[in-house]
Specification:
This is PhnA protein. It is a single chain. By secondary structure, the protein is an all-beta fold. 0% of the residues lie in helices and 28% in strands. The termini are far apart. It has a domain of 56 residues: SH3 Domains (SH3 type barrels), CATH 2.30.30.40. The strands form 4 sheets. A 3-stranded antiparallel beta sheet has the order 1-2-3, with no helix packed on it. It has a 3-stranded antiparallel beta sheet with strand order 7-4-11, with no helix packed on it. It is elongated. It is built from no helices and 11 strands.
């Protein structure tokens, strides 16, 4: 069996340290098999129920959301199709278009996977 490569930087110099693996180049620590699970991926986006979201998914808004800078409101129960996941530097990690409102960003904590 060959030694695993670091899931963060791809280094082949990883070594075992007890029950975990260590990367001497970037300092990342992981358990064997962790790199294969999508939940372990950096920046994995989950909905309000803990389901993993992906680009192109459809989601439903779970509560009324005021649109900042206008008098519009996104009503709870609104279905949003074909979402795009973003880096979410300001907490808004979903980019989408909502009928009647237009392009906007949402926080994943206010949606559930449809």
């Amino acid at each position: 069996m060959s030694d695993p490569v670091c899931p963060q930087c791809g280094s082949e110099n990883a070594y075992p340290d007890g029950s975990q693996w260590m990367c001497p180049e970037c300092g990342h620590e992981w358990t064997p098999g962790e790199e294969a699970t999508p939940e372990a991926a950096e920046g994995a986006v989950k909905d309000a129920n803990g389901n993993l979201l992906a680009d192109g998914d459809s989601v439903t808004v779970i509560k009324d959301l005021k649109v900042k800078g206008s008098s519009l409101v996104v009503k709870g129960g609104t279905k949003v199709k074909n979402i795009r996941l973003t880096d979410g530097a300001d907490g808004h990690n979903i980019a989408c278009k909502i009928d009647g409102i237009g392009a906007m960003n949402l926080k994943s904590e206010f949606v559930k996977k449809a």
